[in-house]
Specification:
about 300 residues, Rossmann fold, Alpha-Beta Plaits, 2 domains, 6-stranded mixed beta sheet, 4-stranded antiparallel beta sheet, 13 strands, about 30% helix, globular, ABC transporter ATP-binding protein, ATP-binding, ABC_transporter-like_CS, ATP hydrolysis activity
């Protein structure tokens, strides 16, 4: 199978720090591929090597069948890159900004205008970039990465610092981009984002890939217990602990939560006690997988 991206044995060191330490993976054509990890995991360094912005110390990388390093001018028109931090030309409007980026690839001005509509910025075309909201600026950044119609798009933390509404709107845009046939590689530390958007994810920490696969498959492999919650007061804690299949029970005064690996038995027993008002059942998530693999300690 021909892969859009193929990475084998990638390594990058900065002094004694192994930023990338033997990373290997492939990305299929048309796939939405995520690279997840805590701060300092090596996500951005890996992406920059694949994009041709950094030289690897060891290993091989091919992008669309070509090596990205040394800087490959024949590859550049075929990829689009949205960096973790984007800088725009001062005092230019959104339209002028996008037309400037497009001109670097010979894109006509009218196509740049059409791209503004695609990312939902048509009404902001004549607004100076510094007056755009955070979500609007992120959309413009993605438009700049897409204006020349690339086959492959790299997105590095595209929803960082966005409010929940702006994040959801941006998710819709990314789905449309991927549905249009483009391959997308995304780095993020938002597990819900990766679970919703990505076909497969690679979980990285300390420069290495710990697990790789579809989010749902990784969650099933964790074999995490289900959590069943009901309003406090419906069932005493001691009665909840006595339910068949109940493992642990907690009550914070708002919700009583039962952890179990046999949710059907617990729910049936709770129904018999008429204690299902407001019931919520939560299975394992990609965040559970992430924390199991990378630990729970805070990292700045």
């Amino acid at each position: 199978m021909a892969y859009t991206i193929s990475v084998d044995g990638l390594r990058k060191r900065y002094g004694d720090v192994r930023a990338v330490d033997g990373v290997s993976f492939d990305v299929h054509q048309g796939e939405f591929f995520g690279i997840l990890g805590p701060n300092g995991a090596g996500k951005t360094t890996t992406l920059e090597i694949i994009e041709g912005l950094r030289e690897a110390d060891e290993g091989t990388v091919t992008v669309l069948g070509l090596p990205p390093w040394p800087r490959n001018s024949t590859l550049l028109p075929r990829i689009g890159v949205q960096l973790q931090a984007s800088s725009f030309f001062e005092r230019l409007t959104a339209r002028e900004q996008l037309q400037t980026f497009g001109s670097l690839y010979g894109v006509p001005a009218e196509k740049a205008d059409a791209m503004l509509e695609t990312v939902g910025l048509g009404e902001k075309a004549d607004v100076q970039v510094e007056k755009l909201s955070g979500g609007q600026a992120q959309r413009l950044s993605i438009a700049c990465a897409l204006v020349h119609d690339p086959e492959l798009v790299f997105l590095d933390e595209p929803t960082a610092a966005l409010d929940p509404q702006a994040r959801r709107n941006l998710w819709d845009l990314l789905r449309e981009i991927n549905t249009g046939g483009r391959t997308i590689v995304l780095t993020t530390h938002h597990m819900d984002e990766a679970e919703v958007l990505c076909d497969r994810v690679a979980i990285m920490d300390r420069g290495r890939i710990l697990q790789l696969g579809p989010p749902a498959a990784l969650v099933r492999g964790l074999d995490a217990p289900a959590r069943i919650s009901v309003a406090s007061g419906l069932l005493a804690e001691e009665d909840a602990r006595a339910l068949p299949g109940a493992d642990t029970v907690s009550d914070d005064g708002v919700s009583l939560t039962i952890s179990t690996r046999d949710p059907s038995a617990v729910v049936a027993a709770m129904a018999a006690k008429d204690a299902l008002a407001g019931v919520q059942i939560h299975g394992g998530t990609l965040e559970d997988v992430f924390l199991e693999l990378t630990g729970r300690e805070y990292r700045a």
